[in-house]
Amino acid sequence: MPDRRSGTGTGRTRSGWAVLCQRNDSCHNRRRADACEGGLRDTRDSVGQEAVSSVEKADTRHRRPAHSGDLPSLLWPPGFPLTDRSATRLTPETANDLDLKPAVQALSGHDQHRERFVAGVLTELCTAPEVITHRQQVIANLLDEPALCQRLRDLLPRLSSLVREPQRPMYAHDWDVEQIVHRLTELELYVEVALCLAETLETSALHAPALQALHASIQMITTSHEFEALREELPPLRAQIDAVQSVTIGVNLSRDLRPESATILSIDAQKIEGRGGLLKRLLGQDSARLGITKLRGEPGRSIRSFFPPMEPDGHRHANPLVEDLRRLLERVMEPVATVIERYVWAHTRDFTALEAELSLMLDGVALIERLRAAGLPMCRPEIAPMGERRSALEEGYNPSLALRMLQAAPEESATASIVTNPITFDENHGRVWILTGPNRGGKTTYARAAGLAQLLFQAGMYVPARTARMSPSDNLFTHFPRPESATLGEGRLDDEAARLAGIFQEATPHSLILINEGLSGTNTLEALALAHDAVRGLHLLGARTIYVTHLHELARHVDEINATTCGDGTVGSLVAEVEGEIRAGGAGHRRTFRIRPSPPLGLSYASEIAEQHGISYSQLTHLLRDRGLIPEPE
Question: Which residues pair with 478 in a beta bridge?
């Protein structure tokens, strides 16, 4: 409440804004307004003189540096043609078939802002050996230098904050006060990031050409006259903005003590505080900056949200007093904006690509470290010529499965049950593999492991294997079970046949094809005939292929297919192995999840799965009898 004895009262708001309420005294008000205007002129003159002096001192240095622009890429070698960067992209269906999501999440640090970029890198099949090598060298350098890797991880949050700053108009005449302050903060972060990155790279052993080029480029930026001028001028500019801490507003009251008019009295360099306690009064704190009521509002909250006179009226017209304040602050900030505008060359887009690429590389290293800590191998694959159509992975496994197991149980022992297997494609052992074995014996997991390793390899990442030598593929096709087609007159077999035909229309000898239970939408005899022709066609094509099927008889025909079909490779038989005595119906065995070249065993062990789920005939009989639905046997 106003102090009626003195005729004045003060109410305090957040951010140090004050409202000074007094009785109607036009002479007193004019004196305060004149003092405010004089103070504003003094403030503007002081800010303007410092800013102009600073500008004049470095006027010749505020042009755009010749070296500014995009930094060297961690993904693409210098001079690699932009036209060659567009590669074949996997379809969403293929990515889903491969269960790519856990790998994308891991390589994006589980940051949704980065997942789209990471998915783009993984699903664009880069076939250029020099690009794959360029990326592998960065990963290897970061692995070899843990201190460098950690310092870059520490820098990454600031780099991310810089590139995620909202885009603003380029020139100061389009800025409001808030944008001026944000632009200054952006420039401060730009300088901080550049200097920290330069120091980190300067004090580290750099072997990767990409990191060496980045170091040279950052050094050119941070040692330039333009950057030095920016670095020197930022502290005075910040001090000028920080000098504006509070605004005092005077409100005239009518005879019946109702507010009737208001004006801005002063722009001050000190915060206003709420009602002072006894300790503050004893210490003699400046009573002119202390309110007699509680300070209202809170940091980060707009004053308009709790001070109704500041709200626009019903026609959305801004309050005139707020507009006056905005214009005054713009006049105060105008010299600052003039200086900042000269640094339009210092743009966050210079670091945008670097932030995305560096985060991918650091998360790639983190993925390697996490899987190795869990006892699983990760290696840098050798690059075989594309024409060899070769893959040779020792102790390969499915990384998505491993990541899901670690997510469910983070302890390192969670992946102890993962079984590694060799994955081989060549002209001697087998380029087209027919994979058979028991249900849930690891066949689909194995096919996905081959596909995920290929994607990681061509993205320039390490692959899940002890050792690896791989040829790039020009495309990757999958043919996994889908829900039945909703097209009128078409069934499951129609859909499967159409999708398989689509693969043959696009695939080349350099492609990788993964088929999981294809052409199973019909009876066994028809499915066997269709699959036999399909495998002959794959052998003729010469593409690396894994054909997962329950048609064990198909795998028995590999010798006949090799003998009767032209092709520069061979068709081979892979089996998901079991241990123990094999009896009719598949009982008496244990799945090992080992995949090895072998003739088919001939049993799918479906009856065992039926027993595990309680749907064998004997189990169903007991269930229905227990429910009283069928009589007891006589």
Answer: 514
Specify the amino acid at residue 339: V
Residue 237 DSSP SS3? helix
The pLDDT mean for the chain works out to: 81
CA separation for the pair 438, 329 (Å, rounded): 76
* 184: pLDDT strictly greater than 50: yes
What does the block give as tokens for 570?
A: 């061979």
Q: Is 345 helix (H, G, I), strand (E, B) or coil?
A: coil
Nearest to 86, CA basis, from 127, 31, 45: 127
As a dihedral over the C-alpha atoms of residue 272, residue 274, residue 277, residue 282, rounded to 10 degrees, the angle is 20
Per-residue pLDDT, 325:
84
The pLDDT of residue 285 is: 54
Give strand pairing partners of 246. 268
Contact predicate 18/303, CB 8 Å: no
Report the Cα 578 to chain-centroid distance in Å.
41
Answer yes or no: are the C-beta atoms of 571 and 546 closer than 8 Å. no
CA distance 299 to 305: 12
Q: What is the rounded CA–CA span in Å between residue 580 and residue 552?
A: 20
Q: Residue 341 is encoded by which pair of tokens? A: 């505008």
Lowest-pLDDT range of 11-20, 470-479, 506-515, 601-610: 11-20
Predicted confidence (pLDDT) per residue in 246-268, tens digit: 888 888 989 998 888 889 898 88
pLDDT attached to residue 147? 97
Which run of H or E residues covers position 190? Answer: helix 177-202
Mean pLDDT of 201-229: 95
Burial level of 316, CB count in 10 A (0-12/13-18/19+)? exposed
Residue 174 binned pLDDT confidence (cut-offs 50, 70, 90): low
Q: List own/partner pairs for 10-13 with CB under 8 A and 24 or more apart.
A: 10/291, 10/292, 10/293, 11/291, 11/293, 11/296, 12/272, 12/273, 12/274, 12/291, 12/293, 12/294, 12/295, 12/296, 13/295, 13/296, 13/297, 13/303, 13/306, 13/307
Query: Are the beta carbons of 246 and 268 closer than 8 angstroms?
Result: yes
Question: What's the 3-state SS for 277-332?
Answer: CHHHHHCCCCHHHEECCCCCCCCCCCHHHCCHHHCCCCCCCCCHHHHHHHHHHHHH
pLDDT digit string (tens) for 80-92? Answer: 887 778 778 999 9
Identify the H or E element spanning 8.
Answer: strand 8-12
Q: Is the confidence at residue 48, as pLDDT, over 90?
A: no
- Pairing of β 17-23 and β 8-12: antiparallel
Strands 571-579 and 590-597: antiparallel
pLDDT of residue 249: 87
Q: Which range has the worst mean pLDDT, 24-28, 69-73, 141-145, 323-327?
A: 24-28
Three-state DSSP state, 617: helix
Strands 391-396 and 467-470: antiparallel
